[in-house]
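Entry 0007
Protein: Hydrolase, alpha/beta fold family protein
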Amino acid sequence: MASETENIKYEESFIKNTRGMKLFTCKWVPANQEPKALVFICHGYAMECSITMNSTARRLVKAGFAVYGIDYEGHGKSDGLSAYVPNFDHLVDDVSTHYTSICGNVDFFVGVKV
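Output (structure tokens):
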């Protein structure tokens, strides 16, 4: 799903972690300019990124940043038992792997000249 309003491009997608679970991801990027930097957000326990972090992400994009979010296992639209994190190391690995892949993959930089 992708949408564009107020010069903000918003997209949602899913990735699979190393345990085969589907994890929800989203991003807010400036629609008509190169971002100043990337911001990776991590939500709190029993929360999710696309709704609860939306206003913060939009403010950051209006200030010129690209913002990326991920729902942890058992949170938001991701697979897993609701609000249950069986192994915190897995959560950290999922987040680290996803955000590292964004930094190393030019395809994630929508509208960015690198």
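Curator remark: The CA atoms of residues 97 and 109 lie 17 Å apart. The chain has a mean pLDDT of 90.
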